[in-house]
Amino acid sequence: MPTFVFKAVDENDRVVQGTLNAPSESLAQLRLRKVYKNVLSIKEEDVVQAGAQTVFQSSPRVGIEALAVYTRQLATMIEAGISINRSLRFLTQGDSQNLNLVLARVAEGVEGGKSLSKAMAEQPRVFNETFVALVKAGETSGSLDIALKKLADLMEKVVNMKKKVVSTFAYPLVIGVVCIAITCLFVFYIMPMMLPMFVNMGVKLPWPTVALIFTVNLCRDPRFFVPLVIVMVVGLYVMITFLQNSKSAPQVRYWLDLNLLKVPVVGRLLQMNDQARVLYTMATLLDAGVSLTDTLTTLELVAGNMVLSQKINWARKSMLEGASVYRSMEMHDTLPQTALQMIKVGEETGNLSDMARRVGKLYEDDVDIQLDNLASMLEPMIMAVMGTVVGFVTLATFLPMVSLLQQL
């Protein structure tokens, strides 16, 4: 007779897990309904054991914006006194189907006796190290709702920063696409229609028109076009392979990040963004009661840049050897002097998390200003370049017409 593993809710609203021998699943469920108020799940024991190993493999990816919304809702429910498993079950009816599936698995883990942090840690593609660390700290300190609210705040800041970056580059990108479309219309449609007329009437073509015709014919020539496409495809493949290997090869990733930080304007912008994220995460973890050592360990993972992550790692090791937080970070040039001085004050006054948050806010505002400046520089540059290209194509198209009118 097969054995079934079940989870049910008793009359006191407690989740009960156990096994039951029955000839079939329907009979097992019928017996359970006579004893328990609600049957949550029932599966044959062999099926449960076979599926236990595939939780991580089939875990879908979830957008950070949807996760932030669900996290705030979960915090509100827990603050209202609703049990964790019931809150998770409520959230599985939300708009994000992928997140509903993940939270259903987390709910099953909680109902099976696991802590919320452990159940979430089994879904690493959705809940990163920072998320799990904060939830674990909230469980330990008895303030899980506060920890979840801080997590929601942190994720919302990341979402807002991404939206800011997208909005900054959206307008120049649209201008560029429109200008390229207009250029292609002139070059590949209007120009071929007008060219036979000029040739038949013996009009001497000016050099811009000759240069444009040469470029168009070259792009249409298979002897040039096919090798160019092959080189582009191979180059794209090599670049993708290189970037994929960089995730598993720390030396490659470090080299990429180091050179990326050297790019004018963009490197400075990325550096400030990473530092703001690290400081906000640091403040959030410390507020939730996470130890300073564990906080720095988590910061290594969320730094977003291998150069900064390596410096944090060195600072953590120096701190374990007895150095203060300020001295550890100063020795390895982890943060700029402004941030280090405020961290030193926070360490001396016992208000390190507040100082880290203040510096993070300062850097976030600085990133906003830099993005606005970058947008104000990019827009006229793109307009100038695209205007020059479109003007050249227009000139090359209509100059023969002027020559034709002069001959009449």
Q: Can you tag this structure with a few keywords?
A:
single chain, 408 residues, Receptor-associated Protein, 3 domains, three-stranded antiparallel beta sheet, 3 strands
Description:
The protein has 408 residues and is mainly α. The chain has three domains: 3-54, no CATH class; 64-155, Up-down Bundle (Receptor-associated Protein), CATH 1.20.81.30; 161-408, no CATH class. 76% of the residues lie in helices and 5% in strands. It is built from 17 helices and three strands. Strands 2-1-3 form a three-stranded antiparallel β-sheet. The chain is extended. The chain starts with a strand and ends with a helix. Mean pLDDT is 78; it is low at 47-57.
Helix/strand layout:
Blueprint: E1 3-9, E2 15-21, H1 25-35, E3 38-44, H2 45-51, H3 64-79, H4 84-91, H5 97-111, H6 116-121, H7 129-141, H8 144-200, H9 207-220, H10 222-248, H11 250-260, H12 266-287, H13 292-302, H14 306-320, H15 325-331, H16 337-349, H17 352-407
Antiparallel strand pairs: 1-2, 1-3
* End-to-end gap: 102 Å
- Count of extended strands: 3
Helix content: over 70%
In N-to-C order, the SSE pattern is: EEHEHHHHHHHHHHHHHHHH
- What share of residues are in beta strands? 5-15%
Q: Sheet bearing the most strands, described?
A: 3 strands, antiparallel
Shape: extended
C-alpha Rg (nearest Å): 31 Å
Strand order of the largest sheet: 2-1-3
- Structural class by sheet pairing and helices: mainly alpha
Could you name the ranges where pLDDT drops below 50 across 5 or more consecutive residues? Answer: 47-57
Question: What number of domains?
Answer: 3
Q: Mean pLDDT, rounded to whole units?
A: 78
